[in-house]
Amino acid sequence: MADLDPDAVLWSADAADRAGRPLLVLLHGYGADERDLFGLVPYLPPAFAVAAVRAPLTPPFPAPGHSWYPIEGLQNRDPRHVTDAASALIAWLDATAPGVDVGLLGFSQGAAVALQAMRLQPERFAFAVTLSGYVTPGELPGDTALAERRPPVFWGRGTRDDVIPAFLVEHTVAWLPEHAELSGRVYPGLTHSVSEGELDDVRVFLEKQLEAKTAED
């Protein structure tokens, strides 16, 4: 399991300003890095402290950036690679933000890792935003507890997304409603990307999570 680089994290606030605030962790997609989703910060509710982390692997040349798990070759479709990436994320959180309320926002590979992390530690994460992603097939020991807890999950995807295989979309369509309080939208004409309309929906979802936390407190 490759560790996350603590020096390759972009924060929306310094340590003093993060105290007492819920944490939103951004998980980029294949071939990108921590800067990719950090550009979303102005569109997100300012109540969150935001951390954009860098995936630990480097794709084979000539692919740029970083990846959470390998996708080259059939042998690299092993779901254990996604679990390893989610475990690395959890280890980084254990060292960086113990006891902090954490939500996850991932794109593509990052979305798959976000959902896998929730499955590994169902009580650890308040919610997840998954954009152009999927649930990794297979069973994990935490799935039953996750289905009982049913944390809020937003899943956004486009009708013209030809990157995520159809069988993974079909699996996610069946799996998520059984394990989460699912909300989201299918965006007509959207490719493997994020649109302004989707960002508007994400912001509404995040604001609802803040309202729910305030009500609990």
- Main β-sheet: number of strands, strand sense, barrel status? 7 strands, mixed
The dominant shape is: globular
Oligomerization state: single chain
Q: What is the helix tally?
A: 7
Task: Please tell me the overall pLDDT.
Answer: 94
- In total, the number of domains comes to 1
Poorly predicted regions? none
CATH class: Alpha Beta
Radius of gyration: 16 Å
Mind telling me the CATH superfamily name?
Alpha/Beta hydrolase fold, catalytic domain
The string of secondary-structure elements, in order, is EHEHEHEHEHEHEH
CATH architecture: 3-Layer(aba) Sandwich
Describe this structure in words.
- With 217 residues, this protein is of the alpha/beta class.
- The protein has one domain (10-216): 3-Layer(aba) Sandwich (Rossmann fold).
- Helix content is 37%, strand content 18%.
- It has helices at 15-18, 34-38, 79-96, 109-120, 143-149, 166-179, 196-216, and strands spanning 10-11, 23-27, 49-53, 102-107, 125-131, 152-158, 181-187.
- A seven-stranded mixed beta sheet has the order 1-3-2-4-5-6-7, sandwiched between helices.
- Helix 6 (166-179) links the parallel strand 6 and strand 7 (181-187).
- The radius of gyration is 16 Å and the shape is globular.
- The termini are far apart.
